[in-house]
Write a structure and sequence with these properties.
single chain, alpha/beta, Rossmann fold, seven-stranded mixed beta sheet, two-stranded antiparallel ribbon, 11 strands, 42% helix
Length: 353
């Protein structure tokens, strides 16, 4: 078992536990209290043995997909929890990927003004990123994750065995976030240096797949360190949005179809790298290294056309916009990024695919 401690600013801590077959030991990990399980239709069919461990009346199954990450689903979950007389001493368990985790986390943060939360991520993206750090929320027609809270789970139970049932699309989705961590590692202020860029460059794609427990641990450690230093994204934590300002605009434009979140992030990283190179922030060698590593895993191989002026307009709705200015994280050196808010619009448009 590998355990990572995420220190919160309220002098409390949450545990990130990584171990194969951990999901089979759920009852050993849980305490003597009422648990409400939130999952989706796909996982309910894949893992009935896990659902069997919960009271049927306290299992809430939602539809699978990013398009269901909306207020309608939130309202459904809240009503189900209240119907079953949830109490403040109870606990919500999120079994799923980023959509389930964000929705369950948001509901846990607001119902009865906050009850305990446990995350059991089942996708690569959720294991490496979204289940850690307490960001919750849902999407609106104006953009992604514009309504939400910061609410850290008491425990994050990561079982890499869930990846055995992960399809290629979701695997690539997780790879996009992994590359994000690789390109920002020196900015994460973590004491241990992993050099994920070289690791991913040197190893064959199948070898990378086989080393996922190690990679998950690297990413989880990097994120836990950043969040421990900046829980509510007032400063350092903004680096975790590398590629995301572009990505969220792409996803909203495409109505969360055609590409996954991780692939959208990969497109966003390419755009940020191109903009940085055009601004002379990085040299040609590092720019090519970023592009070739993304291409190695075929993360941006879909030919998608965007209306550039619409993408820029959508980027103005991003959470990081301040005083009407789009804030963008750009690479400035190998494995380092910085935030810029004075980007010329023609240069911004020129960076888009």
């Amino acid at each position: 078992m590998n355990k990572i401690i995420l220190k919160n600013q309220e002098n409390t801590a949450s545990e990130i536990i990584i171990e194969n077959n951990l999901s089979q030991k759920i009852q050993d990990i849980f305490e003597d209290k009422k648990y409400f399980l939130i999952t989706n239709t796909k996982l309910a069919k894949l893992y009935p043995e896990i659902l069997y461990k919960f009271n049927k009346k306290r299992i809430i199954v939602i539809k699978d997909g990013e398009k269901y990450k909306n207020f309608k689903t939130i309202n459904y979950i809240l009503n189900r929890l209240l119907e079953e007389k949830i109490e403040r001493k109870d606990c919500i368990v999120a079994l799923g990927g980023g959509v389930v985790g964000d929705l369950a986390g948001y509901c846990a943060s607001i119902i009865l003004r906050g009850i305990e939360l446990i995350q059991i991520p089942t996708t690569l993206l959720a294991m490496c990123d979204s289940s850690i750090g307490g960001k919750t929320g849902y999407n609106t027609s104006y953009g992604k994750n514009l309504v939400g809270t910061f609410y850290t789970a008491k425990k994050v139970i990561i079982d890499p065995m869930f990846l055995n049932t992960l399809d290629e699309q979701n695997y690539k989705c997780g790879l996009g976030e992994i590359l994000k961590y690789a390109f920002i590692e020196k900015s994460c202020k973590n004491k241990k240096f992993y050099n994920l860029v070289d690791f991913l460059t040197i190893n064959q794609t199948q070898d990378v797949k086989n080393e996922m427990p190690y990679i998950i641990n690297c990413c989880a450690s990097l994120k836990a360190n950043v969040v421990s230093l900046d829980k509510k994204e007032s400063n350092l934590r903004k680096i975790l949005n590398f590629g995301h300002t572009y990505a969220h605009a792409f996803e909203t434009y495409l109505n969360y179809k055609k590409i996954s979140h991780g692939q959208a992030v990969s497109y966003g990283i390419k755009c940020a790298a191109k903009l940085s190179f055009n601004l002379n922030k990085i040299n040609e060698n590092y720019y090519n290294k970023i592009i070739s590593l993304i291409d190695k895993f075929s993360l941006t191989d879909k030919k998608i056309k965007f209306k550039k002026e619409k993408i820029v307009e959508l980027m103005t709705h991003d959470k990081k916009v301040q005083n009407g200015k789009i804030n963008l994280l750009l690479p400035v050196a190998p494995l380092e990024v910085e935030l810029f808010d004075n980007i010329d619009l023609p240069l911004l448009e020129a960076s888009l695919p």
